[in-house]
Amino acid sequence: MIAEKKFLKPATVSEALEAVQQHKDNFSFIAGGTDVMVNKFQGNHDASCLIDLSGIKELKQIILDQEYLKIGSAITLDELTKDPDVKKSVPVLIETARAIASPIIRKTATVGGNLLCDNRCIFYNQSEWWREAVGYCLKCDGDICIATGGKKNCFSKFVADLAVSLISLNASIEIVGPDDKYLLPLEEIYSGDGVNPHKFSKSSIIKSIRIPIHRQMRSVFKKLRQRETMEFSSLTTVTTIDQSGNIRIVLGGVDPRPVIIEGTDADDIQELIKKAVKKPRIVDNDVFSRLYRKEMIEVYLQHSFQELIS
To answer: 82, 118, 190, 257: least buried by Cβ within 10 Å?
Structure first.
Protein backbone atom coordinates (compact mmCIF):
# COMPACT_ATOMS: atom_id res chain seq x y z
CA MET A 1 0.00 0.00 0.00
CA ILE A 2 1.39 3.44 -0.93
CA ALA A 3 1.74 5.78 2.07
CA GLU A 4 -0.47 8.86 1.97
CA LYS A 5 1.35 12.09 1.08
CA LYS A 6 0.27 15.42 2.55
CA PHE A 7 1.11 19.02 1.75
CA LEU A 8 0.03 21.63 4.31
CA LYS A 9 0.29 25.42 4.04
CA PRO A 10 -0.36 27.12 7.40
CA ALA A 11 -1.01 30.88 7.60
CA THR A 12 0.69 31.46 10.95
CA VAL A 13 3.58 30.07 12.99
CA SER A 14 1.07 28.72 15.53
CA GLU A 15 -0.76 26.78 12.81
CA ALA A 16 2.55 25.39 11.57
CA LEU A 17 3.47 24.15 15.04
CA GLU A 18 0.02 22.57 15.41
CA ALA A 19 0.56 20.74 12.11
CA VAL A 20 3.86 19.43 13.47
CA GLN A 21 2.09 17.84 16.43
CA GLN A 22 -0.33 16.08 14.09
CA HIS A 23 2.37 14.73 11.77
CA LYS A 24 5.48 14.61 13.96
CA ASP A 25 6.35 11.03 13.02
CA ASN A 26 7.37 11.90 9.44
CA PHE A 27 7.23 15.52 8.34
CA SER A 28 9.48 18.22 6.97
CA PHE A 29 9.22 21.98 6.79
CA ILE A 30 9.56 23.49 3.33
CA ALA A 31 9.73 27.08 2.10
CA GLY A 32 11.40 27.56 -1.27
CA GLY A 33 11.96 23.82 -1.67
CA THR A 34 15.24 24.25 -3.53
CA ASP A 35 17.04 21.86 -1.17
CA VAL A 36 14.25 19.59 0.08
CA MET A 37 12.76 18.80 -3.33
CA VAL A 38 16.14 18.02 -4.91
CA ASN A 39 16.92 15.66 -2.04
CA LYS A 40 13.50 14.01 -2.43
CA PHE A 41 14.17 13.51 -6.15
CA GLN A 42 17.53 11.90 -5.36
CA GLY A 43 15.97 9.62 -2.76
CA ASN A 44 17.72 11.36 0.14
CA HIS A 45 14.52 12.69 1.72
CA ASP A 46 11.37 10.68 2.40
CA ALA A 47 9.01 12.78 4.56
CA SER A 48 5.37 11.87 3.96
CA CYS A 49 4.12 15.32 5.06
CA LEU A 50 5.48 18.67 3.87
CA ILE A 51 4.58 21.80 5.86
CA ASP A 52 5.02 24.89 3.70
CA LEU A 53 6.10 28.02 5.62
CA SER A 54 6.28 30.37 2.62
CA GLY A 55 2.85 31.95 3.23
CA ILE A 56 3.45 33.00 6.84
CA LYS A 57 3.61 36.80 6.87
CA GLU A 58 5.43 37.09 10.21
CA LEU A 59 8.36 35.17 8.65
CA LYS A 60 8.58 37.59 5.73
CA GLN A 61 9.54 40.86 7.44
CA ILE A 62 12.77 42.87 7.48
CA ILE A 63 12.91 45.34 10.37
CA LEU A 64 15.70 47.84 11.08
CA ASP A 65 16.18 49.82 14.30
CA GLN A 66 19.17 51.62 15.81
CA GLU A 67 20.82 48.45 17.12
CA TYR A 68 19.65 45.47 15.08
CA LEU A 69 18.56 44.34 11.65
CA LYS A 70 15.94 41.60 11.91
CA ILE A 71 15.39 39.36 8.87
CA GLY A 72 12.46 36.93 8.66
CA SER A 73 13.44 33.38 7.74
CA ALA A 74 10.97 33.15 4.81
CA ILE A 75 12.47 36.15 3.01
CA THR A 76 13.73 34.92 -0.37
CA LEU A 77 17.33 35.46 -1.42
CA ASP A 78 16.08 37.68 -4.24
CA GLU A 79 14.12 39.86 -1.79
CA LEU A 80 17.19 40.07 0.42
CA THR A 81 19.32 41.44 -2.43
CA LYS A 82 16.79 44.22 -3.13
CA ASP A 83 16.09 45.41 0.39
CA PRO A 84 17.39 48.97 1.07
CA ASP A 85 17.92 48.38 4.81
CA VAL A 86 20.09 45.34 4.11
CA LYS A 87 22.08 47.29 1.52
CA LYS A 88 22.60 50.15 3.96
CA SER A 89 23.59 48.17 7.05
CA VAL A 90 25.09 44.81 5.94
CA PRO A 91 25.88 44.89 2.20
CA VAL A 92 27.92 41.68 2.51
CA LEU A 93 24.60 39.79 2.74
CA ILE A 94 23.60 41.08 -0.68
CA GLU A 95 26.92 39.96 -2.17
CA THR A 96 26.54 36.57 -0.46
CA ALA A 97 22.96 36.04 -1.64
CA ARG A 98 23.89 36.92 -5.22
CA ALA A 99 26.62 34.26 -5.12
CA ILE A 100 24.11 31.51 -4.28
CA ALA A 101 22.63 29.42 -7.10
CA SER A 102 20.98 31.20 -10.07
CA PRO A 103 18.63 34.23 -10.35
CA ILE A 104 15.60 31.97 -10.85
CA ILE A 105 16.40 29.81 -7.82
CA ARG A 106 16.98 32.90 -5.67
CA LYS A 107 13.37 33.94 -6.33
CA THR A 108 12.15 30.92 -4.34
CA ALA A 109 15.07 29.91 -2.07
CA THR A 110 14.73 31.45 1.40
CA VAL A 111 17.08 32.74 4.06
CA GLY A 112 16.00 30.08 6.56
CA GLY A 113 16.27 27.37 3.94
CA ASN A 114 19.85 28.34 3.18
CA LEU A 115 20.78 28.31 6.88
CA LEU A 116 19.41 24.76 7.13
CA CYS A 117 20.77 23.51 3.81
CA ASP A 118 21.89 19.91 4.27
CA ASN A 119 25.61 19.16 4.24
CA ARG A 120 26.88 17.94 0.89
CA CYS A 121 29.41 15.41 -0.40
CA ILE A 122 30.32 14.37 -3.93
CA PHE A 123 29.73 10.74 -2.92
CA TYR A 124 26.31 11.36 -1.35
CA ASN A 125 24.52 13.97 -3.46
CA GLN A 126 23.94 11.67 -6.42
CA SER A 127 21.01 9.64 -7.73
CA GLU A 128 19.88 6.63 -5.73
CA TRP A 129 21.11 4.12 -8.32
CA TRP A 130 24.53 5.85 -8.37
CA ARG A 131 24.84 5.58 -4.57
CA GLU A 132 23.82 1.93 -4.67
CA ALA A 133 26.44 1.20 -7.34
CA VAL A 134 29.33 2.94 -5.59
CA GLY A 135 28.32 1.73 -2.12
CA TYR A 136 26.25 3.40 0.60
CA CYS A 137 28.09 5.80 2.91
CA LEU A 138 27.55 6.79 6.55
CA LYS A 139 25.11 9.52 5.51
CA CYS A 140 22.79 7.05 3.75
CA ASP A 141 22.77 4.03 6.08
CA GLY A 142 26.13 2.62 4.98
CA ASP A 143 29.01 1.68 7.27
CA ILE A 144 31.90 3.68 5.81
CA CYS A 145 32.83 7.21 4.76
CA ILE A 146 33.74 6.74 1.10
CA ALA A 147 35.75 9.98 1.06
CA THR A 148 38.08 8.92 3.90
CA GLY A 149 37.60 5.17 4.31
CA GLY A 150 36.77 5.70 7.98
CA LYS A 151 33.84 4.09 9.79
CA LYS A 152 33.18 6.64 12.55
CA ASN A 153 32.77 10.14 11.14
CA CYS A 154 30.98 11.68 8.19
CA PHE A 155 32.78 14.72 6.79
CA SER A 156 30.11 15.97 4.39
CA LYS A 157 30.76 19.69 3.92
CA PHE A 158 28.83 22.61 5.35
CA VAL A 159 27.66 24.75 2.38
CA ALA A 160 25.27 27.37 3.81
CA ASP A 161 26.88 30.56 2.47
CA LEU A 162 24.48 32.94 4.20
CA ALA A 163 25.30 31.31 7.52
CA VAL A 164 29.02 31.97 6.96
CA SER A 165 28.35 35.68 6.44
CA LEU A 166 25.82 35.93 9.26
CA ILE A 167 28.09 34.17 11.76
CA SER A 168 30.90 36.57 10.87
CA LEU A 169 28.42 39.36 11.72
CA ASN A 170 27.70 37.78 15.13
CA ALA A 171 24.10 37.07 14.17
CA SER A 172 21.63 35.37 16.48
CA ILE A 173 18.48 33.48 15.55
CA GLU A 174 15.04 33.46 17.11
CA ILE A 175 13.73 29.92 17.39
CA VAL A 176 10.09 29.09 18.11
CA GLY A 177 9.03 25.61 19.19
CA PRO A 178 5.87 23.93 20.42
CA ASP A 179 6.67 24.82 24.03
CA ASP A 180 9.26 27.59 23.98
CA LYS A 181 10.88 30.54 22.23
CA TYR A 182 14.52 31.50 22.57
CA LEU A 183 17.45 33.37 21.02
CA LEU A 184 20.92 31.91 20.48
CA PRO A 185 24.04 32.57 18.39
CA LEU A 186 23.58 31.15 14.90
CA GLU A 187 26.72 29.01 15.04
CA GLU A 188 25.31 26.99 17.94
CA ILE A 189 22.78 25.16 15.75
CA TYR A 190 25.53 23.39 13.76
CA SER A 191 26.69 20.11 15.25
CA GLY A 192 29.80 19.24 13.24
CA ASP A 193 28.29 15.80 12.52
CA GLY A 194 27.99 15.34 8.76
CA VAL A 195 25.09 12.90 9.11
CA ASN A 196 23.00 15.11 11.42
CA PRO A 197 24.43 18.62 10.91
CA HIS A 198 21.76 20.58 12.84
CA LYS A 199 21.21 20.23 16.56
CA PHE A 200 18.03 22.09 17.37
CA SER A 201 14.63 20.40 17.47
CA LYS A 202 13.16 19.34 14.14
CA SER A 203 9.81 20.55 15.46
CA SER A 204 11.08 24.12 15.88
CA ILE A 205 11.06 26.99 13.38
CA ILE A 206 13.68 29.65 12.79
CA LYS A 207 11.51 32.76 12.99
CA SER A 208 14.11 35.45 12.32
CA ILE A 209 17.79 36.34 12.23
CA ARG A 210 19.07 39.27 14.28
CA ILE A 211 22.25 41.16 13.33
CA PRO A 212 23.87 43.71 15.71
CA ILE A 213 24.43 46.57 13.26
CA HIS A 214 25.39 49.00 16.06
CA ARG A 215 28.85 47.39 16.02
CA GLN A 216 29.47 48.96 12.59
CA MET A 217 31.06 45.93 10.94
CA ARG A 218 32.90 45.76 7.62
CA SER A 219 33.15 42.43 5.79
CA VAL A 220 34.80 40.82 2.76
CA PHE A 221 33.18 37.78 1.10
CA LYS A 222 34.98 35.23 -1.12
CA LYS A 223 33.64 32.03 -2.69
CA LEU A 224 35.25 29.19 -4.65
CA ARG A 225 33.12 27.07 -7.01
CA GLN A 226 33.35 25.69 -10.54
CA ARG A 227 30.68 27.98 -12.01
CA GLU A 228 29.29 31.26 -10.74
CA THR A 229 25.75 29.86 -10.75
CA MET A 230 24.28 26.55 -9.58
CA GLU A 231 27.36 25.18 -7.80
CA PHE A 232 27.46 24.74 -4.05
CA SER A 233 30.49 26.15 -2.30
CA SER A 234 33.87 24.43 -2.37
CA LEU A 235 35.17 27.16 -0.05
CA THR A 236 33.52 30.28 1.35
CA THR A 237 35.37 32.83 3.49
CA VAL A 238 33.99 35.91 5.20
CA THR A 239 36.27 38.19 7.16
CA THR A 240 34.66 40.83 9.38
CA ILE A 241 36.09 43.60 11.56
CA ASP A 242 34.00 45.85 13.81
CA GLN A 243 34.52 49.39 15.09
CA SER A 244 36.36 48.09 18.18
CA GLY A 245 38.87 46.14 16.09
CA ASN A 246 37.40 42.70 16.77
CA ILE A 247 38.01 40.28 13.89
CA ARG A 248 35.94 37.24 13.01
CA ILE A 249 36.92 34.89 10.17
CA VAL A 250 34.35 32.26 9.18
CA LEU A 251 34.91 29.45 6.67
CA GLY A 252 32.37 27.24 4.89
CA GLY A 253 32.69 24.35 2.45
CA VAL A 254 35.76 22.86 4.17
CA ASP A 255 34.35 21.18 7.30
CA PRO A 256 31.08 19.62 8.49
CA ARG A 257 30.37 22.84 10.37
CA PRO A 258 31.32 26.53 10.01
CA VAL A 259 34.90 27.18 11.09
CA ILE A 260 35.39 30.29 13.24
CA ILE A 261 38.66 32.09 14.02
CA GLU A 262 38.56 35.16 16.25
CA GLY A 263 41.10 37.86 16.99
CA THR A 264 41.66 41.62 17.05
CA ASP A 265 43.45 44.15 14.90
CA ALA A 266 46.28 44.04 17.46
CA ASP A 267 47.01 40.38 16.58
CA ASP A 268 49.47 39.19 13.98
CA ILE A 269 47.27 38.84 10.89
CA GLN A 270 49.51 36.14 9.40
CA GLU A 271 49.08 34.04 12.54
CA LEU A 272 45.30 34.37 12.27
CA ILE A 273 45.51 33.19 8.66
CA LYS A 274 47.67 30.22 9.68
CA LYS A 275 45.05 29.23 12.27
CA ALA A 276 42.35 29.46 9.60
CA VAL A 277 44.31 27.20 7.24
CA LYS A 278 45.03 24.63 9.95
CA LYS A 279 41.65 24.39 11.70
CA PRO A 280 39.25 22.93 9.05
CA ARG A 281 38.84 19.15 8.66
CA ILE A 282 39.12 19.15 4.86
CA VAL A 283 38.74 15.83 3.01
CA ASP A 284 38.55 14.89 -0.66
CA ASN A 285 34.77 15.05 -1.04
CA ASP A 286 34.61 17.91 -3.54
CA VAL A 287 35.42 18.50 -7.20
CA PHE A 288 38.43 20.53 -6.04
CA SER A 289 41.15 18.66 -4.19
CA ARG A 290 41.72 18.93 -0.46
CA LEU A 291 45.14 20.52 -0.99
CA TYR A 292 43.84 23.15 -3.43
CA ARG A 293 41.01 24.20 -1.14
CA LYS A 294 43.43 24.51 1.78
CA GLU A 295 45.76 26.68 -0.32
CA MET A 296 42.85 28.88 -1.37
CA ILE A 297 41.95 29.63 2.25
CA GLU A 298 45.25 31.48 2.58
CA VAL A 299 44.83 33.21 -0.79
CA TYR A 300 41.31 34.42 0.00
CA LEU A 301 42.20 35.63 3.49
CA GLN A 302 45.29 37.49 2.30
CA HIS A 303 43.14 39.30 -0.24
CA SER A 304 40.37 39.91 2.30
CA PHE A 305 42.67 41.62 4.80
CA GLN A 306 44.19 43.73 2.03
CA GLU A 307 40.69 44.96 1.15
CA LEU A 308 39.77 45.64 4.77
CA ILE A 309 42.97 47.53 5.52
CA SER A 310 43.10 49.58 2.30
So the answer is: 82
